[in-house]
Amino acid sequence: MNIINGKKIAQDLKADIANRVAKLDRKPGLAVILVGDDPASSVYVRNKDNACKEVGFYSEKINKPANITQNELLAEIKRLNNDDKIDGILVQLPLPKHLDTNQVIETISPKKDVDGFHSENIGKLMQNKPHFRPCTPKGVMTILATIGINLVGKNCVVVGASNIVGRPMAIELLNAQATVTICNSKTQNLATKLQQADVIVVAIGVAKMIQGTWIKKGAVVIDVGMNPLDNALVGDVDFDAAKKVAKWITPVPGGVGPMTIATLLENTLMAYHLRKEK
To answer: Which residues participate in catalysis according to the annotation?
Structure first.
């Protein structure tokens, strides 16, 4: 069993980005909009802001009150769409329930959609002509490449079908010529499906749901979950049991999380170059 050091992979990627940024004539700019004061979202936004500083980006952290109207939020996004200092725009999710998340995402210019959630970018990923790819699935693909996993023909099971992780993750694996099964909360005989998987990616938000006995010996296990439990953070996989059978496994924390932020920086640098070429 090998524990995947996501922090190290992310640190190497950030060091490469910082080296490239140092040679540019302008700092790439990332704007992050936080609506309300959700503690978890605030931590994520602070981490993104710190990561921007680490690699030499220009960073704007925009805090808006929880009672902001839809039109006020859309106006802020449109302002950033036209701001030449800003190459990437990210709206921290989830948003308060009175806001229309889909409309918010679709208002971000596809050229500045460094989260990769705009329908234009998701459509390109679906057609295997990727442009901006959602950060967590792209980060997982970087992890798999770094540890030398050849996905061609492998049986891969994705547990979770969200637009943020599960669905784009399945498409990423499909684009890499893997055989992909997507499972959701209604899936029957989940354990049986997982026992046949060479690679498992779990993103369901249920602490330690995936049991060690459900995992085939020698499988690669990527745990995207991050759940508070007994004053600690744990994944969606029972790590202590799973690590006894998996060949490779990501820890929580320190696995996929750091890669998501490093990939956001990678997408922002890409956005900078694409806008500069215009």
So the answer is: 48, 92, 115
